[in-house]
Design brief:
The chain has 8 helices and 2 strands, in the order H-E-H-H-E-H-H-H-H-H. The protein is mostly helical. The structure holds calcium ion (2 copies). One calcium ion (CA) binds next to loops. Keywords: Calcium, Cytoplasm, Metal-binding, Repeat.
């Protein structure tokens, strides 16, 4: 056979459902998904669209060929990732408000293995909740969890004795902050 796939069908090896989702996100039918298209396609529990930083962050994670956009072969991994976060978010949104409040965030972070104070949870919410609602929607929940993970990983590679304390140089600190800027 070979050649172009039949009209409307997915290319070989691509799940038909994933292909349909890809087509619905790829609004201009260019075969690539941009930050703007992803942002339009993803909604939070309160029907607001995802913020552009989270979309850029996720595209960066799954843009394996560094084209700046998500093509069909990269899309499945991105889509699964979003669905996983959605599941985590819904699990910890115990009062079903469509957002994660401070107490819920505290439980979530604890169960993810972070040892952080309630005050720190407040700080996260203040920093990431750009809408001023004192809670996190799915987009800024993903964004803050990704940042926490990469900062924690970076800390742990330096905290080889596992004491919770590291000594670091000024430049090392600055590099960490720049690398983890979301
Ligand atoms: Ca790409
Ligand atoms: Ca909630």
């Amino acid at each position: 056979m070979g050649g172009a796939p039949p009209m409307g069908g997915p290319p070989p090896g691509i799940d038909p459902q994933i292909y349909q989702w890809f087509l619905s996100v790829d609004a201009d039918r260019s075969g690539r998904i941009s930050t703007q298209e992803l942002q339009q396609a993803l909604v939070n529990g309160n029907w607001s669209h995802f913020n552009s930083e989270t979309c850029r962050l996720m595209i960066g994670m799954f843009d394996k060929d560094h084209s700046g956009t998500i093509e069909l072969h990269e899309f499945q991994a991105l889509w699964n990732y979003i669905q996983q976060w959605k599941g985590v978010f819904e699990r910890f949104d115990s009062n079903r408000t469509g957002s994660i409040e401070c107490g819920e965030l505290q439980t979530a972070l604890q169960q993810m293995g972070y040892n952080l104070s309630p005050q720190f949870c407040q700080t996260i919410i203040l920093k990431f909740d750009v809408r001023g609602r004192r809670c996190l929607t799915l987009d800024n929940f993903i964004q803050s969890c990704v940042m926490l993970k990469s900062l924690t990983d970076a800390f742990r590679t330096r905290d080889t004795a596992g004491t919770g304390h590291v000594q670091m140089s000024y430049e090392d600190f600055m590099s960490l902050a720049i690398i983890n800027k979301t």
